[in-house]
Every structure is written in C-alpha cells, then in structure tokens.
From TrEMBL:
Species in which this protein is naturally found: Engelhardtia mirabilis
Location of the region described as Disordered in the Swiss-Prot/TrEMBL record: 230-250
Residue stretches spanning the membrane: 56-75, 95-114, 126-148, 154-174, 186-212
Keywords: Membrane, Transmembrane, Transmembrane helix
Name the UniProt record assigns to this protein: Yip1 domain protein
Length: 250
C-alpha cells in the first residue's frame, strides 16, 4: 500500500459522509432510469442503497454553483447593475432560499394528487430527488455550454425540454397504480401549472424584495445571468428546480 495522499484522504471523507462508493452511483443510475420508481421505493422504506434525498439535493446543487463559478470565474464584471446585484444575491442566499422553496413545490404536488393516499412527506422525498437530479443535469449543462460554446438559446431549450419531460416522467412513475392513466395525466398537467405559478410568484417575490424590474433583466440579451439566461425568466433564487434557462452560458 502506497503512502496516503491528500486526494485519497479527501475521498475517504467524502465516502464516509455520502457513502459514495456504493450509494451515489446507484442513486444516480436509479434517478436516471426510473426516477418515479426509485423515489417511491425510498418512500416505502427501501433506503439502504441510496443517498438520502436531502443530502443528494444539497450535494448536486453545490455542484451546480461550482460549475457556474468555473465557467464564469470573472463573476459579475460583465453584467449590468441589476443583473450583477441579482447574481450576488443568488450566490449568497440561493441555497437557503431553495430549501424554503422545495417544500412548497411538494405541497403543490400534494394538492394536485389529493385522494391518491400519497402523503406529503412522500411528495417531499420525490421533490428533493427530482430537484437534485435536475441540479446534476444543469451542472453538466453549464460545463458543456461553457466549454463547447455555441448558441445560448440551444442550451436553454435543452434545459426546458429535459425539465418538463423529466418532471412528467417522475410524477408518472411515482404515482403508478395510485390512479387511472387519464386521471394521472390530468393531475400531472395540473402539477406543472402549479409549479409554474409557484415559480412565477417566487421569482416576483425575490426580485421585488431587491427592487429589480424583471423586464430590465431581459433588456440586454447578450448579458448572461448566473444560473439563468438573461433573455429568459430567471429561476427563482436560481437554485430552484422549478424554472429553466439555468445554463449560465455565454
């Protein structure tokens, strides 16, 4: 056995905290191949082989912020005053605001699926896993956008498509057997609408508290916002999984 290095020591610490050697790969694969079924199994008590949903959401959202910082090391120098202020607010408070927002989204899911005998805490588990995987996707998308370049609109469109498809897929699988196909489809559409309303209200609240007009953020389409395209609606707190345009691409 060779002498221990700093890298090996850090890896052992990470493994001890998140059980990366076995749980993280299984969690990523499970949420990629069958997000609804994976979250439902966790809610049913089969949790030994998966990362806890809160840990997963926190870890992947951290990766997203790191990816944005890597792609935009210059910070807010290239942004106008309002966009720069929003970016600094996101970096400082994004994680905390996101934790506040996710239980609200779970409540919206619970409201849309009343009568299916699904408890609120089960929807909260689903929301945390769903959000965590979207964060992972967006971290990869940020890196791809920053390294490969190309039209920003293309990455924003990809993010929107993945978000909607993944949300529908996760809700469909999670509620498999709880209601008929037609009823489930209607409830999923209602969930998307509810999430959109929550997204808009949260965005308006954050921007209002900061005294920023949302129309001003879209005035300069060439200036990207951290965690959101400048010519799209910024994600609430830029850490919430409920909005798209989160590439931070130039």
């Amino acid at each position: 056995m060779g002498r221990p290095s700093l890298a090996s020591w850090l890896w052992e610490v990470l493994c001890a905290v998140f059980s990366l050697e076995s749980r993280l790969p299984r969690t990523v694969v499970g949420l990629t191949l069958d997000p609804g079924g994976f979250a439902r199994a966790h809610a049913a008590g089969r949790r030994v082989v998966s990362v806890a949903p809160l840990h997963y959401a926190l870890a992947t959202s951290g990766l997203w912020f790191l990816a944005i910082a890597f792609v935009h090391p210059g910070g807010t120098d290239s942004l106008d005053a309002d966009q720069g202020e929003l970016v600094e607010f996101i970096v400082s408070h994004g994680q905390a605001l996101n934790l506040v927002l996710l239980p609200v989204i779970a409540g919206a899911f619970q409201l849309c699926f009343l009568g299916t005998r699904t408890r609120y805490v089960e929807h909260l588990w689903l929301t945390l896993y769903f959000a965590g995987h979207i964060f992972l996707w967006r971290a990869l998308l940020v890196l791809a956008a920053g390294l490969a370049g190309g039209p920003e609109e293309l990455f924003v469109l990809a993010d929107q498509i993945v978000f909607l498809v993944y949300l529908c897929w996760a809700l469909w699988g999670f509620h498999s057997g709880t209601s008929g196909r037609v009823s489930r489809a209607i409830r999923i559409v209602a969930s998307i609408l509810c999430v959109s309303v929550v997204s808009g209200l949260a965005t308006a609240l954050v921007l209002g508290l900061m005294g920023i007009d949302p129309l001003d953020l879209g005035a300069d389409s060439g200036a990207p916002a951290l965690g959101g395209a400048a010519n799209s609606t910024p994600a609430p707190t830029a850490a919430g999984p409920i909005n798209s345009g989160a590439t931070g691409a130039r």
